[in-house]
Design goal:
Helices cover about 30% and strands about 25% of the residues. The chain is α/β, with parallel strands linked by helices. A hairpin with a 2-residue loop joins β10 (about 175-180) and β11 (about 185). About 45% of the residues are buried. The model has no long low-confidence stretch (mean pLDDT about 95). Bound molecules: flavin-adenine dinucleotide. Flavin-adenine dinucleotide binds near residues 32, 41, 44, 46 and 295.
Length: about 350
């Protein structure tokens, strides 16, 4: 049977878009070049919040906060329906000094976002400073989230084609009429690009003014017997994310190096040096893994969501840059609203494709 929608790219954004459409009654096929959820959505830290929200424009805050508000229930529902626990946890985030106190306080007050000024010594030994605790910040465990989302798509009747690369679009008279793929030609009524860092390249001449480029991020993984601290820690651009089983993710870098997915000695050394500033006693401990992924980088971290300006059956949901997991549920909601003509929950001008 021909699908109503072909969705290109099965990361967090493609999978959540598929679920939203399936739940609205559409037939959906996801087309994935590799395997489901193995790119940015696997590689990321799973922090469900912008790092310092006060550094970003309102368009980021609006979408991120709606996504954050949807996550607890969605994660519980995924766990219940699929049996896979994405390990959603409201662990809070402790922002260590130096930080922009005034800006942070102003932003939290304006957005009714809970914040507490705390003694860092209550969380970390030997650190006699004042930090900013954001208790509402939560996290998920990316690989588990990806597996749960995949299973949910399949349970809802979605079709997933893996090892199937979309090579280009067949265009005729203002519409897309098919996709050329490594597994032959595919057809649907509508086409949705959720190809992350590859979205602009894939769209080619149809990309219009979209500016999405790969921004490499590297992460180090440590393993302890038990979580060595509870909240996510943020010190300038370094974050440490404790998982339930004692794994700690340390990230990250922001590198514009094209599609080169290598990990580098320089990044490893730089991350380690900054970790030792927070935990001098970790000096003898080696990370057990080191990986890289490509964020779909976009100007000001604002994704593009919705219909192509001139091709009536082509849509995009991409460019979520540093916060694609955080924004995924809300972004899928906005896309569905546009497709079915339902009112949006807030102004969406900034996300439009133009
Ligand atoms: C190191 C790092 C840390 C991060 N930390 C966080 C965090 O803590 N919190 C947060 O919210 N976000 C974080 N992010 C960002 C987040 O991971 C991304 O914004 C998000 O995963 C993007 O999801 P996506 O589905 O658009 O892209 P992806 O997950 O990259 O998925 C795109 C998919 O499209 C497929 N594809 C591409 N081209 C084609 C084609 N031609 N045909 C078929 N399939 C194709 C790819 O194979 C891929 O599977 C982080 C990212 C990185 C790299």
């Amino acid at each position: 049977m021909q699908s109503d929608f072909l969705i290109i790219g099965a990361g967090a954004v493609g999978l959540t878009s598929a679920i939203a459409l399936l739940q609205a009654g559409y037939q959906v096929t996801l087309v994935e070049r590799g395997n489901v959820g193995q790119e940015a959505s696997w590689a990321g830290g799973g922090i469900l919040s912008p790092l310092c929200s006060w550094d970003y424009p309102e368009a980021v805050t609006r979408l991120a906060h709606r996504g954050m508000a949807m996550f607890a229930e969605a994660a519980e529902s995924l766990h219940q329906t699929t049996g896979i626990d994405p390990e959603y946890e409201r662990s809070g985030m402790l922002v260590l000094p130096p930080l922009q106190w005034e800006q942070a306080q102003h932003w939290c007050g304006q957005h009714h976002f809970d914040m507490q000024s705390v003694s860092v010594a209550d969380y970390l030994p030997l650190q006699n400073q004042t930090g900013l605790l954001l208790p509402e910040v939560a996290q998920v465990r990316n690989p588990r989230l990806m597996t749960a989302l995949r299973k949910r798509v399949e349970m809802l009747g979605g079709v997933i084609l893996e090892q199937c690369e979309v090579q280009n679009f067949v265009y005729h008279a203002g519409r897309i009429t098919g996709l050329h793929t490594t597994r032959g030609e595919l057809h649907a009524d509508g086409y949705i690009v959720t190809a992350g860092a590859w979205s602009q390249q894939l769209l080619g001449e149809h990309a219009m003014r979209i500016d999405i480029r790969p921004i490499r991020g590297q992460i180090l993984l440590f393993k302890f017997e038990a979580p060595p601290f509870r909240p996510i820690l943020l010190k300038k651009d370094l974050y440490l994310i404790p998982r339930r089983d004692g794994h700690v993710l340390v990230g990250s870098t922001l590198e514009e190096v094209g599609f080169d997915k290598s990990t580098t000695i320089e990044a490893r050394a730089g991350l380690l040096q900054r970790v030792y500033e927070v935990f001098p006693d970790w000096k003898g401990i080696q990370p057990i893994r080191h990986w890289a992924g490509f964020r779909p980088g976009s100007p000001e971290n604002i994704p593009t969501i919705g219909a192509h300006p001139t091709i009536s059956n082509l849509y995009i949901n991409s460019g979520h840059f540093r916060y694609g997991v955080t924004m995924s549920l809300a972004s899928a909601e906005l896309l569905l609203n546009e497709i079915i003509g339902r009112a949006q929950p807030f102004p969406v001008e900034e996300y439009r494709w133009c």
